[in-house]
């Protein structure tokens, strides 16, 4: 079987100018990066600002499993299908993170016939956005430590600096360190660590910024730590916000690429879906809506994390009103939710599907709580049996939902045509009545309880007194109106990764809360959240290299 | 007076395609990065490989002072002048480092009317080359620590890992650290530190690589540390060379930009001129020579460091044969070499010029030892008096050299026309008989003594027994044939930064020697060499930001 890289290479890509033309983007707004990538000039965002907006379709998924669900391929396949069906559609995706390309996960440009291209470029440096974000993050760090070094006029407590450095690399050895060693001329010793770039607040800010001015204002609001008496110090206090914005200026312009079938795609920004909100940039989504009749976009992890944050953080912040949710599932993954081990997924097991489908059912019902019509995309594997598929369809019928078999991985647009027609029909009906789950005025702890109750079906939220006091403090500081971003495992509705399916009555333990004042949300950390991944025993990097023609090989 | 940024912005740049056409580069070989930057495809390097080569002019300078000399502006001004005089000329420069843009030094795109543009882009992320180099450097680090973490099958001694991490930032707090803290699942605790990206061996390799295969081979030869029994471990042992080459693949293609007067310029690579060889990439210089009748290129710091390395490291490694050296000086800098403080440079002081000109004289005579004709470019300041200029000319006449007054900073090409005509005449005469200073077969310690004697006029090289033993060990390992790269202060011919002018009979103390096996040279560290700069009390970053139109402001 051909690898994704082989399929991508075999495809003939159109010049990016031709893709732009299809998308209604004038030549003058293109900032080309090679022949198949371009940034879209700020001027385009200005001229498009008053255009009528298209419909917004969110692709989300069941709680992820080791079996894989195919959310990105479905986003691409659905976009291709809609374009093939005559609906002018823009696909909006997150940019892949560089680090995981060298580890276990690999790239994130879809797969099979449902890919955005050029895959090597997008997976590695692309147009440099993540490098710019890394640089902005680390310039702030350098300026903080430089401030300490030159006398600490602001009185920052070096033990209370919460701003960490960032690198787009899976590198566990950078998690915890003591730096500034070597004597008085070499810095100020203190504890620090690196997060992977997608976990940086700069990434979240980048993806929520509505324009350059908003970007700089948000950067300025970043809280980097406290003085001994508890006063918060911001990036603006450090005078870093201007230079950070300068580093991010060009990057903030959305990136245009194409799918293997020639659909235009905006691939821009990519925050974590645990400690951040997990969706591509507001700049890209907004621009896409002004250009196309339909935007198909994706949120990270399962619908309890990515979609909830899309709907409670990104949409309210950006003034977006989504029209439809597509929940992606596979028979294999549902069998895992039904208790089957990955190694035993081969044989038919209808009972396991029936046990595991509760995960899908709950995600569908959750999406309806936001006022959205929902369809299910069932990514077909060759091992799926008719009886297993029927079990999923039956479960969906019971809740008045419909599941559509998708084969875009192998067949491209044609494989998602049925799903595409269903999406067209639902959008034409226009029954969406989007609302976020809670009002801004609700106290932070209540927001958290609302998410836990409505989305996770938790019986209780455990908020230790110190955490409650911090939430209170955030409210006193004027951040009571912001949404809450829950960082918990993506593998379960609960905070326990092993509880698959649709657990009920569990307890959500809140370990700590952090204020992302620039991004504009409070992070509630529930469980062990990894903000700097490690590499496996045999990293993918060992197999990556150049072939005899100097082309990059081994990416997946 | 207009700032460099204002002058650069006021200029009307040509589309990069028009610049390429001027340079004889076919449209198909252009990989555009926006409208005014492009990378040049590997295919062009292949088709140009057999073309006759143009003449190679090296621009170097006196020992730098706080007064500034203007080596980059002279390289650009001379290139513009030659093009204006009808000689098809390509300018080859190093890429600026990002870190110093936020500190004291600022950018490095020339100044006044002698600039390469777009200056904001080139000074910040440009085409992402340095980010790629940083990523490749740090992927190797991550894979080393990951190898230690998963059982250390190669038996690396964690205390003997010499490979450091890199960041393109002035950040002193990263110089020395203990990382891998936090317990068994968080890594392997050990000492480490970050160098600025231009000091990474990956940067030196990038700039010496002749093609992709050579790049990967050199990366594989990097020695990352030793086992307990002293066996060297390479990047190839870690299986990192392929993925590092993949990260660097696109970056290795030279970058084309333009001067404000429309000359083509290849701006590519930029290693430090102390612990590395301080010149732009071999890929760019070689390509330039195949495209143009003359290439004007620049080496870092004074001629004792940059030019010596250009002539003893880069040229032999790349099979280049330079035809002429231009030594840049200013009356002001010569007065400083004559003992005048920077604050007292205003009034005429012919005697100081006469005292300080010895620095220029020696650099000129040194360049002749390489078999090169030499001209002097005297960058004119408004405060220079006729008598002071006459003193320089007189000193030059005594050694049979000629100094040409240059005003390209204020007047562009016209200001370097006289210098340009002299360069044309000398190139037409064709008297260059380039030879490097020493033969590859000379023992490493003798190479070092040769440089110290011939170039620095040192009486003695102090090589402690431990250092001598290491040099011996390098020879036993098969690295006796490589050149020696001296890392010493750029401010003096000696290792003492305060000894300006032309000191004689001094001692060169070698503190340590390092093998850059991938780059292919031995570094002799003579004195305190900073590989990670810090920020000043008031970093330039504080003044950098976006103006009301969203343009970047405050770069210089």
Summarize the model shown.
With 556 residues, chain A is α/β, with parallel strands linked by helices.
Description:
Two copies of one chain form a homodimer. With 556 residues, chain A is an alpha/beta fold. Chain A has three domains: 50-111 and 276-429, Rossmann fold (3-Layer(aba) Sandwich); 132-238, Domain 2, N(10)-formyltetrahydrofolate synthetase (2-Layer Sandwich), CATH 3.30.1510; 444-526, Roll (Formyltetrahydrofolate synthetase, domain 3). Chain A is 36% helix and 19% strand. Chain A contains 19 helices and 26 strands. In chain A, β14 and β15 form a beta hairpin. In chain A, α7 crosses α8 (201-208). The model of chain A has no long low-confidence stretch (mean pLDDT 96). The interface between A and B is large, with 75 and 73 residues.
């Amino acid at each position: 079987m051909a690898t994704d890289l082989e399929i991508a290479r075999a495809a003939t890509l159109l010049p990016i100018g031709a893709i732009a033309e299809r998308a209604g983007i004038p030549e003058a707004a293109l900032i080309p990066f090679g022949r198949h990538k371009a940034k879209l000039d700020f001027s385009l965002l200005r001229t498009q600002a008053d255009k009528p907006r298209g419909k917004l379709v969110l692709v989300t998924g069941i709680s992820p499993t080791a079996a894989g669900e195919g959310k990105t391929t479905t986003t691409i396949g659905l976009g291709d299908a809609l374009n093939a069906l005559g609906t002018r559609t823009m696909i909006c995706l997150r940019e892949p993170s560089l680090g995981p390309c060298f580890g276990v996960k690999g790239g994130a440009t879809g797969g099979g016939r449902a890919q955005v291209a050029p895959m090597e470029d997008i997976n590695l440096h692309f147009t440099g956005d993540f490098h710019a974000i890394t640089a902005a993050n680390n310039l702030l760090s350098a300026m903080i430590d430089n401030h300490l070094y030159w006398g600490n006029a602001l009185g920052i407590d070096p033990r209370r600096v919460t701003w960490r450095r960032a690198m787009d690399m899976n590198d566990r050895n950078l998690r915890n360190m003591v730096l500034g060693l070597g004597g008085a001329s070499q810095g100020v010793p203190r504890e620090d660590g690196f997060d992977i770039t997608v976990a940086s607040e700069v990434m979240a800010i980048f993806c929520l910024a509505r324009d350059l001015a908003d970007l700089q204002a948000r950067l300025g609001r970043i809280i980097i730590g406290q003085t001994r008496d508890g006063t918060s110090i911001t990036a603006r206090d450090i005078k870093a916000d201007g230079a950070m914005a300068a580093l991010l200026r060009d990057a903030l312009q959305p990136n245009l690429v194409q799918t293997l079938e020639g659909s235009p795609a905006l691939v821009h920004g990519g925050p974590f879906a645990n400690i951040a909100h997990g969706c591509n940039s507001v700049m890209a989504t907004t621009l896409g809506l002004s250009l196309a009749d339909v935007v198909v976009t994706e949120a990270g992890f399962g619908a309890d994390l990515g979609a909830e944050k899309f709907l409670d953080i990104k949409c309210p912040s950006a003034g977006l009103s989504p029209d439809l949710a597509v929940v992606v599932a596979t028979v294999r993954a549902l069998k895992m939710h039904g208790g089957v081990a990955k190694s035993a997924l081969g044989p038919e097991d209808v009972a396991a599907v029936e046990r595991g489908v509760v995960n899908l059912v709950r995600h569908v019902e959750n999406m309806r709580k936001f006022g959205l019509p929902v369809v299910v995309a069932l990514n077909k594997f060759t091992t799926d049996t008719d009886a297993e598929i029927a079990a999923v369809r039956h479960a969906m019928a019971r809740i008045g939902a419909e599941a559509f078999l998708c084969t875009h991985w192998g067949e491209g647009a044609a494989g998602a045509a049925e799903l595409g027609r269903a999406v067209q029909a639902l959008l034409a009906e226009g029954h969406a009545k989007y609302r976020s789950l809670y009002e801004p005025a609700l106290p932070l702890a209540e927001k958290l309880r609302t998410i836990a109750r409505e989305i996770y079906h938790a019986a209780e939220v455990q908020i230790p007194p110190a955490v409650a006091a911090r939430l209170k403090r955030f409210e006193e500081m004027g951040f009571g109106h912001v949404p809450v971003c829950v960082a918990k495992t993506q593998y379960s509705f609960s905070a326990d990764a092993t509880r698959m399916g649709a657990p009920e009555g569990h307890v959500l333990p809140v370990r700590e809360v952090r204020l992302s004042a620039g991004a504009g949300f409070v992070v509630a950390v529930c469980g062990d959240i990894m903000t700097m991944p490690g590499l496996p025993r045999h990293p993918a990097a060992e197999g990556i290299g150049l072939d005899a023609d100097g082309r990059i090989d081994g990416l997946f």
